[in-house]
Design brief:
Its cofactor is Mg(2+). Keywords: DNA-binding, Hydrolase, Magnesium, Metal-binding, Nuclease, Toxin-antitoxin system. InterPro entries: PIN-like_dom_sf (IPR029060), PIN_dom (IPR002716), Type_II_TA_system_RNase (IPR050556). The chain has about 160 residues and is α/β, with parallel strands linked by helices. The protein has a single domain (about 5-145), classed as 5'-nuclease (Rossmann fold, 3-Layer(aba) Sandwich). It is about 45% helix and about 10% strand. The chain has helices at about 5-15, 20-35, 40-50, 55-65, 75-90, 100-110, 120-125, and strands spanning about 5, 35-40, 65-70, 115, 130-135, 145. Strand 4, helix 7 and strand 5 (about 130-135) form a beta-alpha-beta unit. Helix 5 (about 75-90) crosses helix 6.
């Protein structure tokens, strides 16, 4: 089974000082055994700022065995519609949410779970998307997430 990673999880994987580092490593290893682990170009772009250059980004992703998702027209349209829905309800200053809609739409289009630290950005706009979140960030307002602890395997 393919699993998508949000940039928050990828950063937790790479940086040992992150609070969810061990959880992210454990869940990443479980998911790698089940199939490819994928990031979108948006996630690639978001995490690239934590590296010196393209070669360093590609090396880190290669060591992890993370694959890149090329995207699809359907996912892009889904992201745009989710963003439009968000802007129709929220008139606030948060304008940087579109990348999360790209990430959520791509995972949703592929019917693949998404590992993330910030479930709130995805639940409302992608209700059928399976989210895998650290137990410390899981809330009880949706059935569409799977808070896996370090010793647990994926729940089917």
């Amino acid at each position: 089974m393919t699993t998508f990673l949000d940039s928050s999880i990828l950063i937790s994987l790479i940086k040992a000082a992150e609070s969810n580092h061990q959880w992210a490593v454990d869940q990443f290893n479980i998911r790698k055994q089940q199939g490819p682990v994928i990031i979108s170009d948006v996630v690639y772009s978001e995490i690239s700022v934590t590296f010196r250059d393209v070669a360093e980004v590609n090396h880190a992703l290669g060591v992890l065995g993370v694959e890149r998702y090329p995207g699809s027209d359907e996912a892009l349209v889904g992201a745009g519609r989710a963003y439009l829905k968000y802007k129709g309800v929220n008139r606030g200053p948060k304008n940087s949410l579109l990348p999360d809609f790209f990430i959520g739409a791509e995972a949703s289009q592929e019917k693949a779970p998404l590992m993330t630290n910030n479930q709130k950005d995805f639940l409302k706009y992608f209700p059928d998307l399976e989210l895998i979140v650290p137990p410390t960030t899981a809330t009880n307002f949706s059935k569409s997430f799977i808070p896996l602890g370090p010793a647990e395997g994926p729940k089917e």
